[in-house]
Input
Amino acid sequence: MASSRRIQSIDFWRGVVLLVIFIDHVPGNLFSEATPRNFGFSDAAEAFVFMSGLVLGYINWPRIERGDAGTVVRACLRRAGQLYAVQVVLALGALALFGAAFVASGEPAMLTADNRAAFFDNPTTGLVGTLLLSYQIGYFNILSVYVVLMIMAAGLFWLMSRSIVAAFALSGALFVIARFGIMLPSWPVPYTWFLNPIAWQFLFVIGIAAGALRRSGPLPHSRFLFTAACLYLVFALAVTTGFFGFGDDAAGRIASAMEMNKGVLGWSRLLHFLALAYVVSQLRLGDLLLKVPGSGLVTELGRQSLSIFAAGSILSAVGQIVLRLIPRDENPLAFHLAGVALVAAGVGLMIGLAQYLSWRQASSSEPRVPTPVAKRPASAVLAGFGPRQSSSVSSR
Output
C-alpha cells in the first residue's frame, strides 16, 4: 500500500484552484483575464470538484480496501455537516456585507445583484431558504454542491466497497439523467440550483477514482490519449478565443453546437477538464512548479483549503462591493487599479492566514516537554512539611 503521507503536488494544485476561484469571483479585475476559463471550455469549478474527490479518494481508499466502509461513510457525513455550517455562515455573512454596503452607499445593486433581491425583499423566507440550501446567491453556490456531493459520496463509497463497477454505473446513469431536466429546485425563487449536483457528482466520482489510483503511483502514460488530449485542448483554446481573433463567427457557431451548459456539466466541459488534468499529470507539471520559489506558499493554501476558501469568499464579496462603487466607464484607470490592489491584498491575506493556521497546527502537534524540576535530597523535601502535613500523610 502506498504511503498515506500528503502529496505536495496535490496540495499545490488545490492552492492554485483556490486562488483562481478568488480571482474569478472579483468580476472585472485584470487578473481574471488570465484565468483558465479564458482559454478553454472548463474553469475552476471543475478543478475544485475534481480535486475534492481526488483528495477524498486518496485518503479513504485504504479503508475501503480493508473493508472499513462504515468509517468512511461516517467521515463523509461529518464532513458534509461541517461544510453545511460553513456554507450557511458564508452566505449570511456575505448578505450582511452587501446590506451594510447598501446602507453606507445607497447603491441599489448591493441588494439586487446576483440573486440577492429575494433575501432582502423577504428576509424570513430568504433565511429559511439559506438554511435549506435551496436559496443561493451568486458566487456563493459551489459549497452547497459540495455538501450534497459529500452526502452522495457516503452512499457511493458504501457501494464501491461492494462493486466498483456498480458505483460507476450508477454515477454515470445519474449524469445522463441530469440531461433530462432532473435537478434540485430552488426556493423561495422559482429556479433551480445553478450547479446541478446530480450531474456534477460524476466528475466528483472520477476524482475519487483518480485519488485511489494515485496511491499506486502516477497514472499510466498512453501516447494515444496524450495526443488526443493535447489536440482537444488546442481545439478548445481556438474556439474560446474565437480562433485567436480571426474567426469569432465560426467559433460562435461551433460553441453553440456543443454542450457547454455549466449547470449540468456539459460534456464538452467535462472532456476539456479531463484532457487538461491528464496532460498536466503526464507532464508532471505540479512537480516542476514546486521547484519555483514561492510555490510553498501556494501549497500551504491547499493544505488549509476550507479555511482559505471561506476567507477567499468573504474577500471576494468585499472586492465586489468596492468595484461596484467605482464607475468603470467614467474612470477605467481607477477601476482597474482598484481591482489589482484588491486582488493583490486578498491573495496576501489568504497566504498570511494559511501560514498562521499551519504554524498553529504545528505548534499544537509538538509534544509537550515537562518543565524540569531541580533535584533535591529527600531530607530537604521532608523538611518542608510541617507536623500537620506529616501527620496527614502517615494517617493514609
Q: What stands out?
A: The chain is about 70% helix and 0% strand.
